[in-house]
Amino acid sequence: MAVMRRAAQRDANEPGIIDKARKLGASVQPLNDADIPDLLIGFRGRNFLVELKDGDKVPSKRKLRPGQKRWHERWRGQVAKCETWEEVLAVLTADTR
Q1: What percent of the chain has pLDDT over 70?
Q2: What is the Cα–Cα distance from 34 to 21, expressed in whole angstroms?
Q3: Spatial distance between the Cα atoms of 1 and 43, rounded to a whole number of angstroms
Q4: Per-residue pLDDT tens digits for 6-45
Q5: Nearest CA among 64, 29, 33, 34 for reference residue 47
Q6: Which tens digits make up the pLDDT trace of 36-79?
């Protein structure tokens, strides 16, 4: 039997963040599974997974859902939870040396 996956819910701030990242020169791929991060961003030869939460929503609506929390706990690579463009930019430009 095929597993039915729920489509990811999109946050209101996502289109603006995607637009700003692309204007910065990044590649952006929205991801469409309910439990994985919202965006895969390629910038300066590196890849970033970004979970967006809408900073305009009440704090309880900005938390990871149970499936997202499980995914984040199991993931052994980079992933960032961001609410604003400034937080995404900080992730993209952080010095990892």
Answers
A1: 89
A2: 22
A3: 38
A4: 555 788 899 999 999 999 999 999 998 889 999 999 999 9
A5: 29
A6: 999 999 999 999 999 999 888 888 888 999 999 999 999 999 99
Beta strands in 1-97 (DSSP E): 27-30, 39-43, 46-52, 80-82
- State how far the Cα of 10 lies from the Cα of 29, in Å rounded to an integer: 13
Range of the domain at 45: 14-93
Q: Are residues 53 and 62 in contact, defined by beta-carbon separation less than 8 angstroms?
A: yes
Closest CA to 55 of 17, 27, 6, 24: 17
Count CB-CB contacts under 10 A for residue 16: 11
CATH assignment of the domain containing 33: 3.40.1350.10
Residue 14, H or E segment: helix 14-23
